[in-house]
Structure formats: structure tokens, C-alpha cells
Amino acid sequence: MVDSPKxxxxxxxxxxxxxxxxxxxxxxxxxxxxxxxxxxRTRMWFGLAHVLERHGLPRIDPQFGGRYWPAVxxxxxxxxxxxxxxxxxxxxxxxxxxxxxxGVKPRA
Length: 108
Fold this sequence. Notes:
Blueprint: H1 29-37, H2 44-53, H3 69-79
């Protein structure tokens, strides 16, 4: 009697598919990092997400254990100026790089 091959177990961890869309509506932080920043820069996401939460990035939902992906994508689209901000939402301000003055005000 020949033994049949054992079925492969599903991989544990984030399902990174190579696309810019996650595998579910509430992906974990590693999968969001891969979708937003790409393969080589996923470590940057954790600090970046903390800063962007102050500007409206959806927080991790405690019931689902992840950020709601459509809301994350909508936030990033607004943040990058792809969609106008609705009148009832606070604007997302992006600081433009400029000359540094060192905190000293010029004399008038």
C-alpha cells in the first residue's frame, strides 16, 4: 500500500501576496507595512504609523486585531492629496520642507 502525501499546512503569519492589497479587511501590521511601503522598508511602518495616527490614520481595532484596510487606504489617499477632504473632516496638513531658521525670528 502506498502512503498518500500529507496535505501541506497553511503558512502561519502574514499572507504577503506581492500585490498592494492585503488578504483581508483587517490585516496585521506586517501586511499593512508590506502593502504601503514595500518589501524592503516594512520596519519603518511601526514608527510611521504611530506618527500618522495623530493625523487620522485609523487605529488598530481591538475586536478585529488590525486596522480596517479601506479606511487606511482612504486616509493615505487624502494624505497624499488624491481625494479632497470632506468639509466635516479636519484637514490633513503636510509640512513642506523649507529653509531652517534655527528658531530665531528675523528682525523687522
